[in-house]
Amino acid sequence: MTASEWIRRPRPRPGARARVFCVPHAGAGPSYFAHWVSELPEDVELCLVHLPGRESRLADLPLDDITAIAQRVGRACADLLDLPFVLLGHSMGALVAYETARRLAVPPRRLFVSACPPAHRLVEEPPVAHLPDDEFLAEVRRAYQGIPDEVWNDSALMRMMLPAMRADFAAYETYEWVRRTPLGCPVTVLGGSADTLVPTGSLAGWAELTEGDCEVEVFDGGHFYLTEHRHEVQRMVTAALGTDAAPDPAVAGTGPNREAGA
């Protein structure tokens, strides 16, 4: 395992003063954050967690255990913690970011958890990872509304995405929170006002998992509110890092997301 396999740095910045590590949702690869590459300040380096079984790691066996994933992500980013940094994870990626933060020798400036109930109070949904392919995909599309028509109708693409999606959902469904010392870093909890999977009333529970401050921010939208509101989130990330520059909301429009899940 090398850091370059697990952590993609699409635009290395030798003069960077800070880093942002982003973890995508179930079934997704680093391209979910592709727009962020050009939209973050010039002094911030974007580091994208690239789990096996998707995009350029399609041939790698996906993992179905959150703890195992977090251990590997933590080891992969260990040499990149020489600058101030934040961790941001969306949906299942928020669990990975949280478990990674618990294992790092250097704490992040702030942990951003998006569209995810508190790790110790996960909402128990009927498991779907074990279902036959057609039923599994139909349940994912129904519940998360995260598979665009152009992807759903591309049978070859769906076949390629299926192993990673199934492994990610299995990882989420089998995750068991283990009581440890609370995080020492502050946490910002992000959610969508119309997210039926993660009620906004549950978000404040993340405060019980950190000794730092905990802020909750709710945006208009559903489970994938982040696609439309990424510029606001980028400004929050930049503020947490304390950099001088601010992302330009006029740079790069929102493009279609070709991977989706929890």
From TrEMBL:
Q: Does the keyword Hydrolase apply?
A: yes
Q: Does the keyword Hydrolase apply?
A: yes
Which Gene3D superfamilies does this UniProt record tie to the protein?
A: alpha/beta hydrolase
Which keywords annotate this record? Hydrolase
Pfam families from the UniProt entry: Thioesterase
Q: What region holds the Thioesterase domain? A: 19-239
MF GO annotations:
hydrolase activity
Family in the record: Belongs to the thioesterase family.
Q: What is this protein called?
A: Alpha/beta fold hydrolase
Species source reads Streptomyces rameus
Per the UniProt record, the lineage of the source organism begins with:
Bacteria, Bacillati, Actinomycetota, Actinomycetes, Kitasatosporales
